[in-house]
Amino acid sequence: MTDNIIIEALQKFLQERVANKIKLQTPAKNIDTYDLVHPAVHVGWIPPKLPENISPESQVTDIPCIIVGMDEGEDDGDSASLNIRLSFVTFSEGLVKDGKLYPNYEGYKDLINLIALARRELSAAAVIEDVTSIQRPFKWGMYKDQPAPYWYGWMTFSVACAVMGYISGLTEQYE
């Protein structure tokens, strides 16, 4: 339960302090359309598409996005931490001129800007939603294979979490 509270606090923080400060290109149905949106912030994974009878306005934008996930946790009895992995997805297919698409493969720039904004805001905050604290170092990068026009990157760091205390004699009563 504590882990979920921390992940949801990170989601809220990223929505308010990162996603609301940047607009990025979203995939469009029409090549002549260029829409900019705030990135969505998901927990765990990009949600599946809703059935076609649901209007697009009621669906959450799935890309661009930040995905908050947990790699692993550690509790030694004295301190505990969660290793957090943020995944970033941006979209950029290039430039459109006179109805023709000219791929430029520069979508990685939006990705790097989004990662840098997240790192800056997390560094400045230190404490997230009065729930947890950020533990350095931050590590980040881009995946080697980029399925353009989608661009993927990641950031990892740790956060403090509650220690699950050992109660002496608890297991012995079941022997």
TrEMBL record:
The chain crosses the membrane at residues 149-169. Keywords: Membrane, Transmembrane, Transmembrane helix. It comes from the Bacteria. This is Gp37 protein.
